[in-house]
């Protein structure tokens, strides 16, 4: 689940683009750590069971494995059959020029090969560093910045009401003292599950 708060109203447009079949290409999602990049993508792509997520260093490992096996000219064989490929935290490879250029080449071929076969393929990259955005800007057709959702009592209260939870003043202060809304959301979900279990026991 991802919260489409005021700070990230532009993501609703991104959600529509990623869900449409005709929008093949490469996209970049850029934002600070713990701002909800992965949560947003998993929410948007949950209907697409073929979507595959890789950490950048794991994806690089696939390419190196292809080189060791002597199939460097056809690294595409190492990518599972899918139409949505997500590579997270590409800042981990943004400083390695040769690796970075090889990945760009492989991804361009992967997208174009899919499009020739009338299968619209999308690559989605994520990062928390502006340097990585600049490094991959020539590959990406669209770059979207995701903002960290600001904490405020009204927003926390709305989420609590949505989960059917009620708190004392002390509990409200403890929630508001959390570092970010992602932590608050996780805590509210846990409390809701515990409440449901308790209610189930009482009914029995």
Search tags:
204 residues, alpha/beta, five-stranded parallel sheet, 8 helices, 12% strand, elongated
Describe this structure in words.
This protein has 204 residues and is of the alpha/beta class. It is 49% helix and 12% strand. The chain is built from eight helices and five strands; from the N terminus they run H-E-H-E-H-E-H-E-H-E-H-H-H. Strands 2-3-4-1-5 form a five-stranded parallel sheet. Helix 4 (97-116) links the parallel strand 3 and strand 4. Helix 6 runs parallel beside helix 8. The longest helix is centred in the last third of the chain and has 23 residues, at 181-203. The two termini are 30 Å apart. The relative contact order is 0.17. The model has no long low-confidence stretch (mean pLDDT 78).
């Amino acid at each position: 689940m991802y919260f489409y708060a005021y700070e990230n109203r532009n993501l609703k447009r991104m959600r529509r683009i990623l869900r449409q079949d005709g929008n093949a290409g490469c996209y970049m999602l850029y934002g600070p750590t713990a701002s909800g990049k992965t949560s947003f993508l998993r929410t948007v792509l949950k209907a697409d069971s073929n979507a595959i997520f890789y950490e950048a260093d794991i994806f690089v490992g696939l390419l190196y494995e292809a080189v060791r096996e002597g199939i460097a000219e056809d690294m595409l064989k190492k990518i599972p059959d899918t139409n949505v490929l997500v590579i997270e935290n590409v800042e981990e490879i943004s400083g390695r020029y040769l690796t970075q250029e090889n990945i760009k080449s492989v991804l361009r071929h992967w997208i174009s090969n899919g499009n020739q076969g009338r299968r619209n393929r999308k690559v989605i990259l994520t990062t928390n560093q502006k340097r990585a955005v600049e490094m991959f800007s020539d590959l990406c057709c669209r770059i979207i910045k995701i903002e960290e959702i600001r904490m405020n009592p009204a927003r926390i209260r709305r989420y609590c009401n949505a989960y059917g939870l009620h708190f004392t003043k002390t509990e409200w202060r403890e929630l508001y003292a959390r570092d970010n809304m992602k932590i608050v959301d996780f805590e509210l979900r846990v409390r809701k599950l515990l409440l449901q279990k308790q209610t189930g026991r009482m009914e029995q």
